[in-house]
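A reminder from the course coordinator: this example appears on the midterm review sheet, so study it carefully.

Given structure:
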């Protein structure tokens, strides 16, 4: 699973616009729930923040030369 995570981070690091969008959208609300990870059909925040997509995007941002604007 670690190898899969690292591969996904490396691939995501090649798309800084996607990383920036994920980081901008996956932010906490007042209850420390991710505003983008909502209950299907309800639109209410469901996942604790930081969510998995936020963690993935942050790892990609820290990845190195593939993400020039760290």
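Designed residues:
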């Amino acid at each position: 699973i670690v190898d899969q995570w690292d591969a996904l981070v490396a691939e995501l690091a090649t798309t800084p616009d996607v990383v920036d969008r994920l980081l901008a959208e996956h932010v906490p609300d007042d209850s420390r729930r991710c505003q983008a990870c909502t209950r299907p059909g309800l639109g209410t925040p469901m996942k604790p923040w930081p969510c998995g997509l936020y963690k993935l995007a942050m790892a990609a941002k820290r990845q190195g030369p593939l993400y020039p604007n760290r």
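Residues 13 and 60 are 5 Å apart (CA to CA). The mean pLDDT is 88.
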